[in-house]
Every structure is written in structure tokens, then in C-alpha cells.
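G., before I forget:
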Amino acid sequence: MSERKDIEKELIKTKGRIKTHAKTHLTVLILVIVCEIIGIHKYQVGPGSVVLLPMLWAVIFGVLITPDALGKVITPLKSVVSMEECKLASPMLVIALAPLAVKYGSLTGPAIPMVIKAGPAFILQEFGNLGTIFLALPVALLLGLKREAIGATVSICREPTLGIISERYGIDSPEGRGVLGTYLCGTIFGTVFFGLLGGLAVGTGLHPLALAMACGMGSASMMTAASGSLATAVPAMKDQILAYAATSNLLTGVTGMYMVLLIGLPLVNKLYTILQPKIQGEEK
Amino acid sequence: MKYDVEKNIERLKMLIIVAIITLIGQKIGYGISPIQAIPGMILVIVLALIGFGLKEIIPLRIPAFAYAALITLILTMPYVPTSTFILKYLKQVSFLGVTTPILAYAGLSIGLHVAKMAKISWKIVVIACLVFLGTFFGSAIIAEIVLKIQGII
């Protein structure tokens, strides 16, 4: 840990490193400008929509211009974005995440009175979010993933999880790649998936109100898609479904980060050490 | 642990750079005037620095991300005197606008491991779907049980 921190300090230091800094931040600025100009693209698919956000272009173009990608083909690119710039990007990510943490915190503060008022069912179903670990971790290991599985399955990987995993392990670590993978999948086709699931889940025989609570998983757009199609499937309970889903979603917004930090991460690590040798054999 | 002043000055510089990039990005993407967003961005920087500071002072393995989010949560709860003031200015900072530079840095950073990224490719889509199912049915099953015990359904 402490060794890692010193590296961070060395990297973000501006003294004697102005050139690397200038190249890195200007590259990011150009990426941001280009991606924001491209803007948001939405395609209606069934009850949800595939959403392509500027952040998706940013990560794709960001990867593309690195030395091992396009840098191999277009060599002059290497003089702008070299390994040095890529290395600086890692601690910069942790710094750039802090404003997101603040913004996220400001969305949860106003929701606190509602959390206090919410009944036991609302509170307890929050623990159901740990279902990601039990369902997805074993399969991730079967598919041959190693520590990537930790980041990918610890939660539904919205912004708070992305922040916590990137800071603890680094985004360039296996865990970081995992969390980024699930995060991006959720951003791109999460609403399509939950839009379909919200309606289909009625077939499981679970009560619509229980399903309504499940629709709140910490992302407003996914919740809207899921509860919208659930309400369409059970029109008689529409108002109650939408209210339950919105409440549960706010609740997950507040509890999600603490759930990951205090329970999810220790749990997924523990389960990994138990399951990994059983599923993948002893080789590390 | 000790508060490393030098390191946090470097962090402040970096936060200012990120803030400038974000101000430009959210002007283009979401039409937010950079001048109007400056007070909000200053608040963001201050709260972020408090987050980093707490991480260094408190000897727990809790990321600065969590501290910054928690402090802001406390300061923006209704009835806390700072809440209206902070919320008013933070409104000028776009959630999506903040994410774009983050993912740009992330892209550059994981670019060092392109080959390893390619290895998980399609598998991550399968896993993400199971993650979605896991969180949904995990919550639904617990809710079903508790609501039944309470006699609500």
C-alpha cells in the first residue's frame, strides 16, 4: 500500500515532469472535446434503449491512441502518447474520480430522510444486491477470469463501485479491468436488459411489489426501464410499482457504496479464495 | 498516518486541471456556462481535498472516494444549514460531464494492457448479464420474504 502511494506521488508531481503532464492533460482535453461533440446517442430497443454516452467514446478513443494500439501503426502518435503518459493516467483517474464522489454524495444527501422512513423490507432487500457475487463470481471463474472477476462481480458496478475499486486496486489492475467491463456493459445495454427483465420477471411468480423493489438498483435510467415495463405488465398496480421502485433506487444510491466497501468487497475476496482453486485448479 | 502537504498540493493542481477539462467538456456537451459553474467546481475541489485528507489522517483502508462522498452526503442532508447552498452550486456541475474525463484517463491507463483487455472481451458481457440478474433477483427474493412476513403481500 505505502509503496503504491509513493509511486502515485512521484507520478503526479509536476516538478521536472511538465512535459508529460502537458501531453497527458491536453490529450484528455482533446478526447473530452471530441467525445462531447459526438454527444449522446440513444437507440430504442424494445422497452429500453441502447445508450452511447460520451464517456464510452472517451474510453474507446483513449485506449486506441495508446502506444500498443494505434501507436503501433501511426508511430508519430507514440511521441505524444507514450508509456509515460499512460502511467500518469492511472493516478490521474483516482483524482478525476473525486469530483464524481462529491457529485454522487450530493445526490444522496437529500435522500436521507426517505431512507430513515423506509420500512424493513426496503432496507433488507438492499442486501439482495450482493446476489451479484453469488451468481456471477462462479461463472466468471468458470470462464477463466482471474482477479478480474472480483471487480466485475462485486456489485452492479455503478459509479461508487468504479471509484472504490479504481482507488484500491488501480484501474490498470485486473480488478480495475473487471469493474470497468461491467460498468461499461451497464451503461451501454443496462436499460435494455432491465427493460426486458422488468416485464418478464412477472412470470417467476414473485409478487409485483417485491419485483418493484428489485427494480431499484442504483441507476435511475435502469430503474426507469425496469419499473416501466413491470408496470406495463401489471397495470393495476402501476402507481405503487413506480413508487416502490423509485424509493428502492434512491435507497440503493445511498447504501450501495457502503455495501460494497463494508460487505461486498470482503465477501467477494473471501469467496474468490475459496472458489478459485476449486474451479480453476491450484495454478494462480 | 501523516498528512502529506506536498502531495496534496500536487493533488490540488491536478484537481484544478481536471476541473478545467470538465468545465470545457460540460459547456460543449450540456451547454453549462463555465463562468456560472466555477463556484460549484471550487466546492467540488475543496470537498475532494477533504476526502483525500481524511484518507491520509484516518488509519482505515477506506478510499478517498468514500470520504468525499460521505462528507458531501452529510453536508447536503436537509436541515443541515449548508445543504441549500451546496446543492445550489453543485447543480452547475453535470454528473455526466464529470464522467467523460474520468473515462478518458481510464482509457489511456488501460491502454497499457490492451492484450489483457481483449482476453476478457465477450466474457464480460456474459458476466455483466449475470451481475444484473443477481442484483435483481437477490433483492426481489429478500423483498418477497420480508413483505410476506410483514403480511403486506
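The mean pLDDT of chain B is 93. The CA atoms of residues 73 and 83 of chain B lie 9 Å apart.

More on Monday.
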